[in-house]
Specification:
It is a single chain. The protein is an all-alpha fold. It is built from 18 helices and two strands. Helix 1 runs parallel beside helix 5 and helix 14 packs antiparallel against helix 15. The radius of gyration is 20 Å and the shape is globular.
């Protein structure tokens, strides 16, 4: 069955409303779940912010997330809601926004209302998306929404808006750089100009300004992501990549450096390849290239967590919706992510990241082949 036939032809608007309500109901059931990340990190950060005045405390070195999200936590402390509820509410709203952006992107690429509606429903009901916000209390929908918007604006030849969207994603999560091959290709192909890149430091500067005014040292704010990158030493943090085949907790600086070099080489090589074939920055080929980037970069890099394939999950869905004649191999990506989310949330240690790295590799190889097949712009 063609994936675009998942929604009926008639009464689609009513169907989408019911799908949205059902998706929210599922999330409501999961709200009481307290993940390890909530107990060990988000709740203590929230309590510290509340103790020192909420928004008045944004100048304190609370947590190791980018200050953009700390601002949100600080604002939430002023609401008459339990922190577990308010934190998850923000993430769930991010899910809806993510689904809406996926819907617009699918419509822009395919011109099909049915494809757009299917993308919306699939994004909103994707297990890894549901679990990330409603059970895990994570906010990966926020930066992923910005990355999908970046791709949408690249497809529609709006480079300034594309870089603005990427900048918004970047000031939420460092993992936005997984899209680097696409952006470098756009720069090499002169679809994005150097002046557009200046948006990134400008937005970053604006993002850290409130914390700086509140008393946090500027050097610390500018080096937040440098500090994040050095937080973990284990080569694999339960991500289904090639480091998962090593013993658990393995630390090896040389292998870590090798992964960084491989990811850098892949970024440069694929960007040059795509730039020489400008079709990769528009339409279905752009989806192929973006999925290739979002799968391969975290597959090669060290110190990856299981949820760092979250943007690839959404691109895999868009791939299946917008390229219905292609095989469904990319859907292995969100399946692996959902399994590893259950491993983390339920303590199901029998779910092996090393074993799941095999289907993830199969999906990565498929993406490489799809990139080559898409060289003609189809």
């Amino acid at each position: 069955m063609n994936i675009r036939t998942a929604l009926p032809r008639r009464h689609t608007a009513h169907t989408l409303v019911w799908i949205t309500l059902a998706a929210l109901a599922v999330r409501a059931v999961l709200v009481p779940v307290e993940s390890g990340d909530y107990r060990d990190f988000l709740h203590p950060w929230f309590e510290e912010l509340r103790t020192y005045g909420g928004l008045a405390a944004i100048g304190r070195p609370v947590g190791n997330y980018m200050v953009t999200y700390i601002y949100i936590l600080a604002l939430l402390t002023h609401l008459p809601l339990p922190d577990l509820v308010s934190i998850k509410l923000v993430s769930v709203l991010g899910d809806v926004l993510l689904a809406l952006v996926c819907r617009r992107f699918a419509r822009s690429v395919t011109g099909s209302g049915r494809a757009a509606d299917t993308a919306y429903a699939a994004a909103l009901l994707l297990p890894s998306v549901v679990l990330n916000s409603a059970a895990w209390a994570q906010c990966d929908s926020l930066y992923t929404t910005a990355l999908i918007a970046c791709l949408l604006h690249l497809h529609e030849d709006r480079p300034a808006r594309a870089m603005l969207a990427f900048s918004v994603g970047f000031v939420f999560k460092l993992q936005s750089v997984f899209l680097a091959p696409v952006l470098l290709a756009a720069l090499l192909a002169k679809k994005v100009r150097f002046r557009h890149l200046l948006v990134v430091p400008a937005v970053y500067g604006l993002a850290v300004l409130p914390a700086f005014w509140a008393g946090r040292p500027l050097k610390e704010l500018l080096l937040l992501y440098v500090g994040q990158a050095g937080t973990y030493r284990a080569l694999s943090m339960n991500a289904p990549n090639w480091y998962a085949w090593l013993p658990a907790g393995c630390e090896n600086a040389a292998l870590g450096a090798l992964g960084v070099l491989l990811a850098g080489a892949l970024t440069l090589g694929s960007a040059v390849y795509a730039a020489r074939r400008g079709s990769f920055l528009h339409g279905a080929p752009l989806i192929r290239f973006a999925l290739f980037s979002l799968v391969w970069v975290p597959f090669l890099l060290p110190h990856m967590h299981e949820r760092y394939f979250y943007p690839a999950d959404l691109l895999a869905v868009l791939f299946a919706v917008c390229l219905p004649r292609e095989r469904r191999v990319p859907l292995l990506v969100p399946l692996c992510s959902a399994a590893l989310a259950m491993r983390f949330l339920c303590g199901a240690v029998w779910i092996s990241p090393g074993a799941l790295a095999l289907p993830m590799l199969a999906a990565a190889l498929f993406c490489a082949g799809a990139l080559r097949r898409g060289a003609g712009g189809n």
